[in-house]
């Protein structure tokens, strides 16, 4: 296919176009081997210099060149090829009977010429003499018929192209309106037609009437899914991210995200879909496998990471699900979920109801403080008054309370520090004259929870136990400084937790004493929980001392849980993957550019691109950075290393770093647009902006994955293939518009007549068929479209807009006689009806500009 004509079949002697035929087209494959086979079979030597990516983006082959058994339908929307399909049906002889195509013969390779020579020799002399005469006779006989058919076909092709362009614009505007309304909290409703009073003037009425918006979302979801699937296949390795349960389409579902690293070395995250919560852990396991294998065409053998984030009663179910996945696929590692630090994620996932309640309360306090500037100012004053006698404490606490501190390693320490000042601010904020009602209600609900001894002692115990494992957080985030001491750090953390567990009586006595002192300072009664014990979930023995009760039901359970989870997260596979941080050049510089083979030698062969050259490649990698360190700044992170220009010359190192970048907990350095972090933000925005009864899975999928760019033309072709009659409706509508006479009244004022003609020119709607109104204008001279008329139109537009603005914004009694006179003088040129016409043109222009800007996101 000629690069200037990407809508034509790339096969030689094939004149089928994408916009003139219903024959399906297939792009060249991205796989280099298959792409080479396609190219060799096509005999297109002129395309050999092009890369598989260029061929995939610019060239395609129609279905006529494939065996029918290789073509199948994935669904009612798309036609696809079976895996490994190769085009084999080509015609390399038709150019002999078509002298006009002589110039195209140059692009056919030498084997085709040899075949033609043998064919001519076999057929004899008549092939050279008789056949051309027959070819010359037939065009002469049917020339008139052919001309009519070609002209008719041309008109039909133009009409089809115009109709498809209308569909393309409508689909873009539909997606743009959907994303724009969600982003501006407009509560989008797909049941309400988009061609209402808000957008009817800009949308085609046939499209509004005949096309269901839900179906448009479904088509876009299918195309987005195909693009994401292709991207994941190129990335190869991926990780699964399960987020907290949400209510969508009337039922509780678990959103499933997927993380991978692009060929260019950037992290990417996509929303895959939703899993229902009604199933048990085993049922969720098989549904997740079906989603990944059958719906997305991925292999779980390429999965390298898994994380989950959940609250409430689903904690135990999600823990069982992850255990089942880790058991079935040992190459998968469990990692903490963004945005939580490692120790906070462990407690967030702990299946004890009261622990969950404490973590929820801490997050609620942080959100209230961030959402109320007045509360923060008062809290800052209280912190200064409470800790002014301690040197450096005021600055430390204020700095620790910034940003999203509730997800950090010291969240419970910060909560204890601000607990007393926060309680002191509650009464002040609620009694203020300008107090926000919603904030006061939230603080009133939190006050009895905060002034409870169970809450205080839980904070104290969590603060002291989680500090034992907080030293592991930098290693999971990809900090290269601790790579050399990773095993030592894990051992130290486990030893520290076990020491607390062995000497729990001594440690807990200190923690209990600290909690009692804080409670008395706040005026909180030190008492055991109620008989029902909703906090602990266990029966409370009244004869047990309070200190012993909290030691057994709180401190011991937390420490035992931490030991088990640290061993589960820092498995042998996780330690092996984190050791690959030693391949980052800045780490190598700290160790004299020497890679310890024992740190990377145990790499799983499935993670390597070329296992046979692995050790030789490591030696070249060392030499490269030993010399490069003298003239350039060394990369300091995984993703910075993946972006160096010659990383492809080190395929094994690239593969290991891409696996490391796939792990969910490793810091994802997004590109300049921050697309990776924006995916989860868009998901939260959709949940916040859309009521539960209006949420749709496909709308969430399209909105969250809006950074995925798909071809809208493919969407149009799929829709036309399913709804063939839509083109006929658009053809009929176009014919009605062309034949409809202009019934606008003509003003007797010559200036208005000139304005009307120029407005019609700006709208580009020439009327070729004479109408009754045009017969009345025969006696009126038609002014040419000169620069004077254009300036007159410009002045008329300015006057109309100014007059409309003054009439809307001016209050009664404000306008002076002089202003009224100016308006009247200016309106002599534009009557009321013409002013409405001009304002309508301006409105359409503004709307078109907004749509162009918003549609750019899709």
From TrEMBL:
Classification via PROSITE patterns: ZF_THAP
InterPro entries the UniProt entry points to: IFN-induced_PKR_regulator, THAP_Znf
Positions of the THAP-type domain: 5-90
SMART domains (UniProt xref): DM3, THAP
Annotated spans, Disordered: 127-157, 758-784, 805-826
Keywords assigned by UniProt, alphabetized: DNA-binding, Metal-binding, Zinc, Zinc-finger
Lineage: Eukaryota, Metazoa, Chordata, Craniata, Vertebrata
Pfam family, one: THAP
Protein name from the UniProt record: THAP-type domain-containing protein
Biased composition (Acidic residues): 762-773
One Gene Ontology term of the molecular function aspect: DNA binding
Source organism (scientific name): Oncorhynchus mykiss
